[in-house]
Amino acid sequence: MMRTRIKICCISSIEEARLAVKLGADALGLVSDMPSGPGVISERLIRDIVAITPPAVASVLLTCRQEAAGIIEQQRRCRVNTIQLCDAVPHEQYPLLRAALPGVSLVQVVHVGDQASIAEAIAVAPQVDAILLDSGDTKRSVKELGGTGRRHDWTVSRRIVESLDLPVFLAGGLNADNVGEAIRDVRPFGVDLCTGVRRNGTLDEAELVRFFSAVAVA
């Protein structure tokens, strides 16, 4: 069975990045300006973290921007190898991103609500390299684009995984106590978490170890 990949998000320092890499993270999530949620750091710090990230580990810029021009500018400043699009992007923008950023992977977030999320994921899948299923709410007056710590309906997520022929990451309320259940129920390509391995806002090594162990035996 294929190993479940692990993305540690909301990396806030070079020390946190090194800890996550040491324990076996496949990807580091680096959060740029967002309307709400935890983990936002400066683009200068993102670039510094990218500089010390091993080539085999994905450096993932989380952006709330929806227009290609702004996203391209961010990538060129931060030099990440992957972009996580946390809000809906007009479909005509994807070819512009592809043309300007060859070799940079695109991950589109789908915030799972009702069954309409399945159609949303299927529609955007041909434009991107992976889908990430999260528990935000783009309809609020201040958009929630991630880091809520909430679990969504995993039966919907499982249907999305079964409907797509590309990697799907699962996020939203994951921790060492429930990630095994999540992997068994959803069968994602990878899992992604932020708040579930933090204590007082800081990445906690003991919780990380517990999480990695739970994924390994799932």
Mean pLDDT: 95
The CA-CA distance between the termini, in Å, is: 11 Å
- CATH topology, by name, is TIM Barrel
Backbone shape: globular
Series of secondary-structure elements, N-terminal to C-terminal: EHEHEHEHEHEHEHEEEH
Q: For the report, how would you describe the main beta sheet?
A: 8 strands, parallel, barrel
How many domains make up the 3D coordinates?
A: 1
Structural class: alpha/beta
The CATH class = Alpha Beta
Across the major sheet, the strand order is 1-2-3-4-5-6-7-8
The helix content, as a percent range, equals 25-40%
- In terms of DSSP E residues, the strand content is 15-25%
Number of helices: 8
Secondary structure tally: strands? 10
Question: What are the SSEs and their pairings?
Answer:
Blueprint: E1 5-8, H1 14-23, E2 27-31, H2 43-52, E3 58-63, H3 68-78, E4 82-85, H4 93-100, E5 105-111, H5 116-124, E6 130-134, H6 154-163, E7 168-170, H7 179-186, E8 190-193, E9 198-199, E10 202-203, H8 205-217
Parallel strand pairs: 1-2, 1-8, 2-3, 3-4, 4-5, 5-6, 6-7, 7-8
Antiparallel strand pairs: 9-10
Helix pairs in contact: 3-4, 5-6
Structure description:
The structure is a single chain. This protein is an alpha/beta fold. The protein has a single domain (5-217), classed as TIM Barrel, CATH 3.20.20. Helices cover 36% and strands 19% of the residues. The protein contains 8 helices and 10 strands. The chain has helices at 14-23, 43-52, 68-78, 93-100, 116-124, 154-163, 179-186, 205-217; strands spanning 5-8, 27-31, 58-63, 82-85, 105-111, 130-134, 168-170, 190-193, 198-199, 202-203. An 8-stranded parallel barrel has the order 1-2-3-4-5-6-7-8, surrounded by 6 helices. A two-stranded antiparallel ribbon has the order 9-10. Strand 3, helix 3 and strand 4 form a beta-alpha-beta unit. Helix 5 (116-124) runs parallel beside helix 6 (154-163). The longest helix is centred in the C-terminal third of the chain and has 13 residues, at 205-217. The chain is globular and about 40 Å long. The mean pLDDT is 95.
